[in-house]
Amino acid sequence: MSDSTLKSRQSFLREIPFAPLETSETSGWKDIVLHQHFLPPNEIYMPALDEHFLLVTMAPSIKCENLNSKRSKPITFRQGDVAIAPLGHSQQWRWLTDYDALNLFISPYLVKEVSKDLLKGDSDSISLMELNGVAAPLISSLSTALLHELKANFPNGMLYVDILTQALVANLITAYSTRSYIPGIKLSQPDQKYVHDAIDFINAHLNSSLRLAAIAQACNISVSHLSAVFNQIVGMPVHQFVMYQRIEKAKILLKNSQKSLKEIASELGFSSQAHLTTNFRKSSGVTPDKFRQVI
Fold first, then answer.
1. Which residues, 6+ apart, have CB-to-CB distance to 19 below 8 Å?
2. Are 212 and 238 contacting, i.e. CB atoms less than 8 angstroms apart?
3. What is the C-alpha separation between 291 and 37, in angstroms, rounded?
4. What is the pLDDT of residues 175-230, one digit of tens each?
5. What range does the domain containing 80 cover?
6. What are the start-end ranges of the H helices in 2-56?
7. CB atoms inside a 10 Å sphere around CB 134
8. CB under 8 Å to 267, separation ≥6 — which residues?
9. What is the DSSP letter of 167?
10. Is the residue at 184 inside a domain?
11. 3 pLDDT exceeds 80?
12. Residues 171 and 193 in one domain
């Protein structure tokens, strides 16, 4: 099927007569869009899209029929079950009960980039499997974590969204692609330098909205490689390290300056004073104001 015959996510969603309960469309996410939909029983045709589609069941159960099959019979999706429609695959379903699910649209570019360190061969030929109603607890939990971040207005920052996205796509690729998986990234001397470069970049840009892709680009390695080696060498994911550095620098400013919490939050890349206070209390057990009073 040529690219010209593929439909966009937007054109497909315009055919759904109900607005999503939640959407990440305007949240600044990179190469992934999440919608939470609650729909009454209905028949839905999804054309061949120019993105990969992932469904994660939220309801205790959803009964449906796959109308693509000549001998269609009811299927029950249980909570946490997933379905995958790879790029270019159309599907038609009839939902016999209320539809309560997460719909994730994942760009082929993201799948290609994440696959470079995970799969053997040419990453341009990566293809996900078409699946219906498979239990996938890890993919379900990562998708749900993305939903929680969206609903809570990103308490852990956009870098955490990047980490969740990378982990989600990596699990899709390793478990549900048609290509051979390369086990484990082996550490080497260059990896030590990459991590040192990443830490230098992070410390130089703590006042900005750090994104995983920008850190990886500064180190001249892929995002998935950076995530793997950083965790192994530093002992924590990138987003946790960034938050740790921000909290430690906040302590220094609280101790040695008269800057307001709003000023400190802005200087260290927190989205707001409340974001600083929430994460400071979580890390230190006290609020910034209390910390300043007792030092």
1. none
2. yes
3. 43
4. 898 776 666 555 556 688 899 999 999 999 998 889 999 999 999 988 988 988 89
5. 3-176
6. 9-13
7. 15
8. 207, 253, 259
9. H
10. no
11. no
12. no
Cβ-contact 55, 103 below 8 angstroms: yes
Strands 22-23 and 32-39: antiparallel
User: Which tokens is 240 given?
Assistant: 């946790």
Looking at residue 37, the DSSP 8-state letter turns out to be: E
Residue at a domain's end among 202, 217, 235: 235
Position 75: which residue type? I
What tokens does 223 get? 């995002």
**Do 25 and 9 reside in the same domain of the chain?**
yes
- Of 210, 197, 277, whose CA–CA distance to 242 is shortest? 210
Task: Kindly tell me the burial class for residue 1, based on how many C-beta atoms sit within 10 Å of its own C-beta (0-12, 13-18, 19 or more).
Answer: exposed
This prediction has a pTM of 0.84
Would you tell me how many other CB atoms lie within 10 Å of the CB of residue 66? 16
* DSSP one-letter code for 56: E
Together in a domain, 144 and 193:
no
Looking at the domain assignment, is residue 182 inside a domain?
no
- Number of residues in the chain: 295
The stretch 159-178 carries a mean pLDDT of 91
- Encoded tokens for 294: 């007792």
Residue 259 lies in a domain: yes
Token pair of 100 as six digits: 């309560």
Amino acid at 258: Q
| Same domain? 245 vs 154 | no
27 versus 184: which is more confidently predicted? 27
DSSP 281: H
**Which residue has tokens 């890390």?**
283
138 and 284 within one domain: no
d(CA 20, CA 34): 10
Domain shared by 83 and 130, yes or no = yes
155 belongs to a structural domain: yes
